[in-house]
Amino acid sequence: MDLVGLTEEIVKSLVIDKEGVSVKEFPTEEENTILIQVMVNADDIGRVIGREGKTANAIRTLVQASSALQDNKYVKIDIDKF
After folding, report:
1. Longest CA pairwise span in the chain (Å)
2. Which CATH number fits domain 3-81: 3.20.20.140, 3.90.1150.10, 3.60.15.10, 3.30.300.20?
3. How far apart are CA 31 and CA 12, in angstroms?
4. What is the pLDDT of residues 25-42, one digit of tens each?
5. Cα(43)–Cα(14) distance, rounded to whole angstroms?
6. Would the pTM count as exceeding 0.90?
């Protein structure tokens, strides 16, 4: 599974409004870095970030571990609401 698909599956499993989840990959200036932007409904942002950011950090850890197994690129995940 690609990193964007993995991130999307994890986030959709956490939120109530699954249709309101948007996950996209953007190029970065650094050669070995991937930026993944996650947009969720404003009502679900707390579920994705978690208390003290623990859920967001867990998502980042899982996706980074998957990247280490595939192409070993550094992954930055930006979580925002709309």
Report:
1. 35
2. 3.30.300.20
3. 29
4. 998 999 899 999 999 999
5. 12
6. yes
